[in-house]
Amino acid sequence: MQTGFKAFEADSGAVTPIQRFGSAANLNIHLHCLVLDGVYRRTDGEPVFVQADSPTDEDLQALLHKIITRLMKLLTRRGVRIEEEGGSSYLADAEADSDEARALRPLQAAACTYRIAFGPRAGQKVFTVQGAMARDAVLTQALCVDHQGFSLHAAVRCDADERQRLEQLCRYITRPALANERVQINAAGQVVLKLKTPWRDGSTHIVMSPLEFMQRLAARANEGRLSCARAAAPAASDSLPRGVGAERQAEGTGSAAWPRAGYR
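-> C-alpha coordinates emitted (264 positions)
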Protein backbone atom coordinates (compact mmCIF):
# COMPACT_ATOMS: atom_id res chain seq x y z
CA MET A 1 0.00 0.00 0.00
CA GLN A 2 1.23 3.49 -0.85
CA THR A 3 0.00 6.57 1.02
CA GLY A 4 2.70 9.10 0.12
CA PHE A 5 3.94 9.54 3.70
CA LYS A 6 7.44 8.92 4.97
CA ALA A 7 8.03 6.54 7.88
CA PHE A 8 8.46 9.35 10.43
CA GLU A 9 5.22 11.04 9.33
CA ALA A 10 2.74 8.20 9.88
CA ASP A 11 2.23 4.86 11.56
CA SER A 12 0.45 1.69 10.55
CA GLY A 13 0.01 -1.67 12.23
CA ALA A 14 -0.39 -5.38 11.56
CA VAL A 15 -0.84 -8.73 13.28
CA THR A 16 0.55 -11.86 11.61
CA PRO A 17 -0.37 -15.33 12.91
CA ILE A 18 1.97 -18.01 11.59
CA GLN A 19 -0.03 -21.07 10.57
CA ARG A 20 1.74 -24.39 10.04
CA PHE A 21 -1.12 -26.51 8.75
CA GLY A 22 -3.50 -26.98 5.84
CA SER A 23 -7.06 -28.27 5.83
CA ALA A 24 -5.82 -31.86 5.29
CA ALA A 25 -3.76 -31.74 8.52
CA ASN A 26 -0.74 -31.41 6.27
CA LEU A 27 2.32 -29.35 7.13
CA ASN A 28 1.85 -26.06 5.26
CA ILE A 29 3.63 -23.08 6.77
CA HIS A 30 2.01 -19.80 5.72
CA LEU A 31 1.27 -16.38 7.11
CA HIS A 32 -2.04 -14.59 7.63
CA CYS A 33 -1.48 -10.84 7.87
CA LEU A 34 -4.20 -8.58 9.24
CA VAL A 35 -3.03 -5.13 8.14
CA LEU A 36 -4.45 -1.65 8.53
CA ASP A 37 -5.69 -0.46 5.15
CA GLY A 38 -3.86 2.83 5.52
CA VAL A 39 -1.86 4.81 8.08
CA TYR A 40 -2.39 7.12 11.02
CA ARG A 41 -0.82 10.45 10.12
CA ARG A 42 0.90 12.13 13.04
CA THR A 43 -0.42 15.56 13.99
CA ASP A 44 -0.11 17.91 16.94
CA GLY A 45 -3.44 16.57 18.17
CA GLU A 46 -5.23 13.33 17.47
CA PRO A 47 -3.81 11.09 14.72
CA VAL A 48 -5.67 11.26 11.42
CA PHE A 49 -6.35 8.04 9.53
CA VAL A 50 -5.50 8.15 5.82
CA GLN A 51 -6.78 5.25 3.77
CA ALA A 52 -4.47 3.76 1.16
CA ASP A 53 -5.44 2.97 -2.39
CA SER A 54 -6.31 -0.64 -3.12
CA PRO A 55 -3.39 -2.63 -4.54
CA THR A 56 -3.43 -3.89 -8.11
CA ASP A 57 -2.40 -7.30 -9.42
CA GLU A 58 0.79 -5.65 -10.71
CA ASP A 59 1.52 -4.30 -7.22
CA LEU A 60 1.13 -7.78 -5.75
CA GLN A 61 3.36 -9.33 -8.43
CA ALA A 62 6.09 -6.83 -7.60
CA LEU A 63 5.66 -7.39 -3.85
CA LEU A 64 5.77 -11.17 -4.21
CA HIS A 65 8.95 -10.93 -6.30
CA LYS A 66 10.53 -8.79 -3.56
CA ILE A 67 9.47 -11.28 -0.86
CA ILE A 68 10.95 -14.23 -2.77
CA THR A 69 14.22 -12.38 -3.44
CA ARG A 70 14.66 -11.32 0.17
CA LEU A 71 13.73 -14.74 1.52
CA MET A 72 16.25 -16.50 -0.72
CA LYS A 73 18.96 -14.06 0.40
CA LEU A 74 18.06 -14.66 4.05
CA LEU A 75 18.26 -18.44 3.65
CA THR A 76 21.63 -18.07 1.92
CA ARG A 77 23.03 -15.82 4.67
CA ARG A 78 21.95 -18.32 7.32
CA GLY A 79 23.59 -21.22 5.49
CA VAL A 80 20.34 -23.04 4.78
CA ARG A 81 20.59 -22.49 1.03
CA ILE A 82 23.77 -22.92 -0.98
CA GLU A 83 24.06 -20.84 -4.14
CA GLU A 84 26.70 -21.74 -6.71
CA GLU A 85 28.33 -19.52 -9.32
CA GLY A 86 26.35 -20.96 -12.21
CA GLY A 87 23.09 -19.84 -10.63
CA SER A 88 22.04 -23.25 -9.33
CA SER A 89 21.15 -23.63 -5.67
CA TYR A 90 20.36 -26.40 -3.19
CA LEU A 91 19.60 -26.85 0.49
CA ALA A 92 22.52 -27.45 2.80
CA ASP A 93 22.87 -30.63 4.83
CA ALA A 94 21.43 -30.07 8.29
CA GLU A 95 24.07 -31.98 10.23
CA ALA A 96 23.86 -29.55 13.13
CA ASP A 97 20.19 -30.32 13.77
CA SER A 98 19.20 -31.88 17.07
CA ASP A 99 18.20 -35.54 17.34
CA GLU A 100 14.59 -34.44 17.69
CA ALA A 101 14.74 -32.37 14.51
CA ARG A 102 16.26 -35.28 12.57
CA ALA A 103 13.54 -37.59 13.88
CA LEU A 104 10.80 -35.19 12.82
CA ARG A 105 12.25 -34.54 9.36
CA PRO A 106 10.75 -37.60 7.56
CA LEU A 107 7.39 -36.91 9.21
CA GLN A 108 7.48 -33.30 8.08
CA ALA A 109 8.55 -34.20 4.54
CA ALA A 110 5.69 -36.69 4.25
CA ALA A 111 3.18 -34.26 5.73
CA CYS A 112 4.18 -31.61 3.16
CA THR A 113 3.56 -33.95 0.24
CA TYR A 114 0.39 -35.66 1.50
CA ARG A 115 2.26 -38.94 1.86
CA ILE A 116 2.72 -41.49 4.65
CA ALA A 117 6.06 -41.58 6.45
CA PHE A 118 6.05 -44.96 8.22
CA GLY A 119 4.08 -48.19 8.32
CA PRO A 120 2.80 -50.66 5.70
CA ARG A 121 1.94 -47.86 3.24
CA ALA A 122 5.09 -45.79 3.71
CA GLY A 123 5.74 -43.47 0.76
CA GLN A 124 2.21 -43.76 -0.60
CA LYS A 125 -0.34 -40.96 -0.65
CA VAL A 126 -3.27 -40.99 1.75
CA PHE A 127 -6.60 -42.33 0.54
CA THR A 128 -9.12 -39.74 -0.59
CA VAL A 129 -12.89 -39.78 -1.06
CA GLN A 130 -14.20 -37.91 -4.08
CA GLY A 131 -17.58 -36.52 -3.11
CA ALA A 132 -17.75 -33.57 -5.51
CA MET A 133 -17.35 -32.88 -9.21
CA ALA A 134 -13.79 -32.41 -10.41
CA ARG A 135 -12.79 -29.01 -11.75
CA ASP A 136 -10.90 -28.91 -15.06
CA ALA A 137 -9.13 -25.58 -14.62
CA VAL A 138 -7.86 -23.39 -11.83
CA LEU A 139 -10.10 -20.38 -11.34
CA THR A 140 -8.18 -17.12 -11.32
CA GLN A 141 -9.10 -14.51 -8.75
CA ALA A 142 -8.29 -10.83 -8.60
CA LEU A 143 -5.59 -9.75 -6.14
CA CYS A 144 -4.21 -13.29 -5.93
CA VAL A 145 -0.81 -14.01 -7.48
CA ASP A 146 1.64 -16.92 -7.39
CA HIS A 147 5.18 -17.45 -8.59
CA GLN A 148 7.81 -20.17 -8.07
CA GLY A 149 5.73 -21.98 -5.47
CA PHE A 150 4.93 -18.83 -3.51
CA SER A 151 1.50 -17.21 -3.43
CA LEU A 152 0.12 -13.92 -2.18
CA HIS A 153 -3.58 -13.33 -1.53
CA ALA A 154 -4.95 -9.84 -0.81
CA ALA A 155 -8.57 -10.09 -1.91
CA VAL A 156 -10.18 -10.00 1.55
CA ARG A 157 -11.00 -6.61 3.04
CA CYS A 158 -13.18 -5.34 5.90
CA ASP A 159 -14.49 -1.80 6.04
CA ALA A 160 -14.14 0.15 9.25
CA ASP A 161 -17.75 -0.38 10.31
CA GLU A 162 -17.85 -4.13 9.56
CA ARG A 163 -17.00 -5.19 13.09
CA GLN A 164 -18.71 -8.58 12.92
CA ARG A 165 -16.91 -9.44 9.69
CA LEU A 166 -13.63 -8.31 11.23
CA GLU A 167 -14.25 -10.60 14.21
CA GLN A 168 -14.94 -13.51 11.85
CA LEU A 169 -11.72 -12.77 9.99
CA CYS A 170 -9.76 -12.68 13.27
CA ARG A 171 -11.29 -16.00 14.30
CA TYR A 172 -10.36 -17.50 10.93
CA ILE A 173 -6.71 -16.48 10.95
CA THR A 174 -6.25 -17.66 14.57
CA ARG A 175 -8.17 -20.93 14.25
CA PRO A 176 -6.68 -24.22 15.49
CA ALA A 177 -5.44 -26.87 13.09
CA LEU A 178 -8.46 -29.16 13.28
CA ALA A 179 -12.13 -28.67 14.09
CA ASN A 180 -13.74 -31.53 16.00
CA GLU A 181 -16.68 -31.71 13.61
CA ARG A 182 -14.35 -32.42 10.67
CA VAL A 183 -12.78 -35.53 12.27
CA GLN A 184 -14.68 -38.83 12.52
CA ILE A 185 -13.95 -42.53 12.94
CA ASN A 186 -15.59 -44.86 10.41
CA ALA A 187 -16.81 -48.42 10.96
CA ALA A 188 -13.39 -49.81 10.01
CA GLY A 189 -11.65 -47.77 12.71
CA GLN A 190 -10.07 -45.36 10.22
CA VAL A 191 -9.82 -41.62 10.71
CA VAL A 192 -11.91 -39.67 8.19
CA LEU A 193 -11.01 -35.99 7.87
CA LYS A 194 -13.38 -33.71 5.99
CA LEU A 195 -11.59 -31.08 3.90
CA LYS A 196 -12.53 -27.45 4.44
CA THR A 197 -13.19 -27.06 0.70
CA PRO A 198 -13.15 -29.77 -2.02
CA TRP A 199 -9.91 -30.23 -3.92
CA ARG A 200 -9.71 -29.67 -7.66
CA ASP A 201 -10.04 -33.42 -8.32
CA GLY A 202 -13.32 -33.51 -6.34
CA SER A 203 -11.85 -34.96 -3.13
CA THR A 204 -13.88 -34.02 -0.06
CA HIS A 205 -12.36 -36.30 2.60
CA ILE A 206 -9.07 -38.05 3.34
CA VAL A 207 -8.94 -41.43 5.07
CA MET A 208 -6.06 -42.53 7.30
CA SER A 209 -5.30 -45.23 9.79
CA PRO A 210 -4.87 -43.99 13.38
CA LEU A 211 -1.10 -44.39 13.00
CA GLU A 212 -1.07 -42.34 9.79
CA PHE A 213 -3.17 -39.65 11.45
CA MET A 214 -0.78 -39.51 14.42
CA GLN A 215 2.10 -39.03 11.98
CA ARG A 216 0.37 -35.92 10.63
CA LEU A 217 -0.01 -34.53 14.13
CA ALA A 218 3.56 -35.43 15.13
CA ALA A 219 4.95 -33.49 12.16
CA ARG A 220 3.85 -30.34 14.00
CA ALA A 221 5.12 -31.47 17.43
CA ASN A 222 7.36 -28.45 18.02
CA GLU A 223 4.64 -25.83 17.48
CA GLY A 224 4.12 -25.33 21.20
CA ARG A 225 7.69 -24.11 21.56
CA LEU A 226 7.48 -21.60 18.73
CA SER A 227 6.04 -18.13 18.76
CA CYS A 228 3.28 -18.32 16.16
CA ALA A 229 2.31 -14.64 16.00
CA ARG A 230 4.00 -11.39 15.11
CA ALA A 231 2.73 -7.87 15.72
CA ALA A 232 3.80 -4.52 14.31
CA ALA A 233 2.37 -1.41 15.95
CA PRO A 234 3.33 2.24 16.51
CA ALA A 235 6.01 2.44 19.18
CA ALA A 236 6.60 6.16 19.54
CA SER A 237 5.16 7.94 22.57
CA ASP A 238 3.29 10.42 20.37
CA SER A 239 1.71 7.72 18.25
CA LEU A 240 -1.82 6.40 18.51
CA PRO A 241 -2.37 5.58 22.22
CA ARG A 242 -2.78 1.87 22.78
CA GLY A 243 -6.07 0.92 24.38
CA VAL A 244 -7.45 4.45 24.39
CA GLY A 245 -8.06 4.37 20.66
CA ALA A 246 -9.86 1.05 20.93
CA GLU A 247 -12.07 2.34 23.73
CA ARG A 248 -12.98 5.50 21.86
CA GLN A 249 -13.63 3.51 18.69
CA ALA A 250 -16.03 1.38 20.68
CA GLU A 251 -17.85 4.50 21.84
CA GLY A 252 -17.80 5.86 18.28
CA THR A 253 -19.86 8.98 18.99
CA GLY A 254 -19.35 12.35 17.35
CA SER A 255 -16.11 13.87 16.19
CA ALA A 256 -14.30 12.81 19.35
CA ALA A 257 -14.00 9.18 18.22
CA TRP A 258 -10.82 7.93 16.58
CA PRO A 259 -11.21 7.44 12.83
CA ARG A 260 -11.83 3.77 12.20
CA ALA A 261 -9.53 1.89 9.92
CA GLY A 262 -10.30 -0.75 7.37
CA TYR A 263 -8.36 -4.02 7.36
CA ARG A 264 -6.97 -6.14 4.57
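Residues 10-256 form one domain.
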